[in-house]
């Protein structure tokens, strides 16, 4: 099993833009062979 954990800090004024761009990355990643899970979490801050 391979697990990758990444923390990304985004400026408050760029959060919406980041989410939209990262959504595309997420959609592509979940279709990759062998990918069983791809979670994206956001702090409540």
Characterization of the model:
It is a single chain. By secondary structure, the protein is mostly helical. The chain has one domain. The chain has one helix at residues 15-29. The N and C termini lie far apart (31 Å). The model has no long low-confidence stretch (mean pLDDT 91).
Distance between the termini: 31 Å
Proportion of residues in extended strands: under 5%
- Can you give the mean pLDDT? 91
Report the radius of gyration as a whole number of Å. Answer: 12 Å
Tally of individual helices: 1
> What order do the helices and strands follow?
H
The backbone outline, from C-alpha atoms, is globular
- Counting helices, strands and paired strands, the structural category is mainly alpha
Give me the count of strands: 0
Weakly predicted, low-confidence segments: none
Question: How many domain units?
Answer: 1
Percent helix? 25-40%
| Biggest beta-sheet profile | none
